[in-house]
Design brief:
The protein is mainly α and about 300 residues long. The protein has one domain: ABC transporter involved in vitamin B12 uptake, BtuC (Orthogonal Bundle). Helices cover about 70% and strands about 0% of the residues. It is built from 13 helices and no strands. Helix 3 runs antiparallel to helix 4. It starts with a helix and ends in a 13-residue tail after the last helix.
Length: about 300
């Protein structure tokens, strides 16, 4: 039971970073913008957050720095894709490649750096309960923050006027523009918010999840987060559940290795990515379902007055 509780706790922890990034990308895509640069944004945010934590000793400032780095790169993407009308897919891939190289260059001096002792978190009384205390109530605050963010984003998209406008821009930017809404500014805000959340996820990786800096440490999690938005059919609650599913698959490999299961480590490391491919293949079999849930203008450029 102790091992199972630890696995559940690790699943929530591992799923949180995917959920934060995927929720940010969901905001982008609900506005009709596809940003393939999540991997690069998360890497730059990871080194920004780690460097800030090293020099200031403050995790809060580290998360703020990560969000700022992610938003800054997202702003560059917005300039290219929304104002200069470059191809969204090409601009996103370029951003991902740039972020990978830039983070490796900037992070050379931080490979051997170590953070101060990491704080432990526990909710009084509840954390002492058998099984559920270990599994649910000894998590980093951002784990609970991701859950609250999911609920807040669901309310925003489906219960608020601003969320309705955002979804309208993603469905038909021409109609929204005709009604007087500033489509490009709305998309800019969505892209910046998405970049900030990807940045928060990147900083969470290097500051709390695995508190160190290693080149390429995001290791494809940005791409998994991107796939999660399709897997979840652009619904916040499904994003969170999907993140925990993939987080559980990721943690399962370490659990099996710890239990002495004689399976090649390379095969176990493949599990999260194999699961991603399998899920996308299964979803893609029902193209009508995807089209019914996908924002109609996703990935399509908008030219005001054009």
């Amino acid at each position: 039971m102790n091992a199972l509780a630890a696995l559940v706790a690790a699943t929530l922890n591992g799923g949180t970073l995917l959920a934060l990034a995927a929720l940010g990308l969901l905001i982008n895509e609900r506005a009709g913008v596809v940003n393939l640069g999540a991997e690069g944004m998360m890497l730059v945010a990871a080194i920004a957050g780690f460097a800030t934590a090293v020099h200031t000793g403050s995790d809060t400032l580290a998360f703020v720095a990560g969000m700022g780095a992610g938003a800054a790169l997202a702003g560059v993407f917005a300039l290219l894709a929304l104002w200069l009308n470059t191809n969204q897919y090409a601009a996103g891939l370029a951003l991902s490649l740039f972020g990978t190289g830039f983070s490796a260059f900037v992070g050379q001096g931080y490979v051997q750096e170590k953070l101060t002792a990491r704080p432990s978190f526990a909710i009084p009384v509840l954390s002492d309960l058998p099984f559920v205390g270990t599994a649910l109530f000894r998590q980093h605050p951002l784990v609970y923050g991701a859950m609250a963010l999911t609920a807040g984003l669901a309310w925003f998209l489906y219960r608020s006027r601003a969320g309705l406008v955002l979804r309208a821009v993603g469905e038909s930017p021409e109609s929204a523009h005709a009604l007087g809404y500033p489509v490009r500014r709305i998309r800019l805000l969505a892209v910046l918010a998405g970049g900030a959340l990807c940045g928060l996820a990147g900083a969470y990786v290097s500051v709390a999840y695995t508190p160190l800096w290693v080149e390429g440490m995001i290791a494809g999690k940005g791409w998994i987060a991107l796939a999660l938005t399709t897997f979840a059919t652009w619904r916040p609650a499904r994003v969170l559940l999907g993140a925990y599913l993939f987080g559980g698959v990721t943690m399962l490999q370490f659990h099996l290795q710890g239990q002495g299961v004689e399976v090649p480590s390379q095969l176990l490391s493949m599990l999260p990515y194999v699961a991603t491919i399998v899920v996308l293949v299964l979803i893609s079999r029902n193209s009508g379902f995807i089209r019914a849930n996908m924002p109609a203008s996703l990935g399509k450029p908008f030219h005001p007055g054009g």
